[in-house]
What we know:
Blueprint: H1 4-12, H2 20-31, H3 37-46, H4 48-67, H5 79-87, H6 89-106, H7 109-128, H8 133-161, H9 164-171, H10 173-189, H11 194-201, H12 203-212, H13 219-224, H14 228-237, H15 246-264
Helix pairs in contact: 3-8, 4-8, 4-10, 4-11, 4-12, 5-8, 6-7, 6-8, 7-8, 7-11, 7-12, 8-9
Amino acid sequence: xxxxxxxxxxxxxxxxxxxxxxxxxxxxxxxxxxxxxxxxxxxxxxxxxxxxxxxxxxxxxxxxxxxxxxxxxxxxxxxxxxxxxxxxxxxxxxxxxxxxxxxxxxxxxxxxxxxxxxxxxxxxxxxxxxxxxxxxxxxxxxxxxxxxxxxxxxxxxxxxxxxxxxxxxxxxxxxxxxxxxxxxxxxxxxxxxxxxxxxxxxxxxxxxxxxxxxxxxxxxxxxxxxxxxxxxxxxxxxxxxxxxxxxxxxxxxxxxxxxxxxxxxxx
Length: 267
């Protein structure tokens, strides 16, 4: 007859018949002790991207009235140009969505978030230094590009990092931060001119890039790259210690990943 320790070892090695009730009880025992501080820090760092997205969406509303009445004729926008200034973000976002899908598979979720902060910062920097209407357009396209990448990568990062019991709650932070970003830029626009408002909007993506340097890559991506030990360390970093079911869970994820890869291979 198998002892509990033998059964646990079989489950972690991926062999033997799984005992769902026993596995769930181990999860309950673990989750009653675990501290998810690192998970929440990783979530906070990643949702700086959606906040930046909200700043991009809301920026045109307080900036346009001033840009349409500015004394410099090179920067003054007419009605048509103002319409383009507000909507050209979607052009960059469309490209960013396609680019983000490629980036998450090639460089990972973490690096994708770090890279997408660069167009945010560069775009707002170009707007800050703008000397003509075309520089304003380029800045808006770049921030739209970053927004498209962010809208794809951040929900994926959170869903792969979070435990299933908090995945929905943490996932809802994405849309919440977009709305808070829009509201924040509206409020800031009451007190700042369009250049200082762009400076304010460049702060969250800068923090995103810095904070993500200290956050882990998702276990799923690490498994897809054959880095099982790093995947276990990533799980442990967001749970305080290596969970007792990590071996079997990672083995199951590896099997899913292998099946996904096999399905993409031509027969």
